[in-house]
Amino acid sequence: MESQQIINEYIEFLWNMFKYDMDVFSKGWLYYWLLIPAMFYFVFYILKWIVLTCPIWMPISIIVKTLANFKSDKKSDK
User: Fold this and answer.
1) How far is CA 11 from CA 14, 16, 53, 54, 61, in A?
2) How many Å is the Cα radius of gyration of the chain?
3) Is 4 helix (H, G, I), strand (E, B) or coil?
4) How far is CA 12 from CA 1, 32, 37, 69, 76, in A?
5) Percent of the chain with pLDDT over 90
6) Domain locations in the chain?
7) What is the distance between the alpha carbons of residues 63 and 27, in angstroms, rounded to a whole number?
8) How many angstroms separate the CA atoms of 47 and 41, rounded?
9) What is the C-alpha to C-alpha distance for residues 44 and 70, in angstroms, rounded to an integer?
10) Which of 10, 35, 37, 76 has its CA 20 to 30 A from that of 65?
11) Cβ neighbours of 41 (radius 10 Å)
């Protein structure tokens, strides 16, 4: 598989998951009983999207932390 094909399939997967979540959030049963099911699904939704988008934000986070540590090490050397 080419890298462009992998990226396209990953984006398509994220799009399908987003459409599914919006479909679930549009169901009436989610808003019965004082929004308790909606609150639980929203927590699940947040955790799910943290995991699904991990390949996007984790490398950026690692690079930023590495650069911050490098910068703080340079300041402490002075």
Assistant:
1) 5, 9, 10, 13, 20
2) 19
3) helix
4) 16, 32, 28, 35, 46
5) 68
6) 3-77
7) 40
8) 10
9) 36
10) 10
11) 17
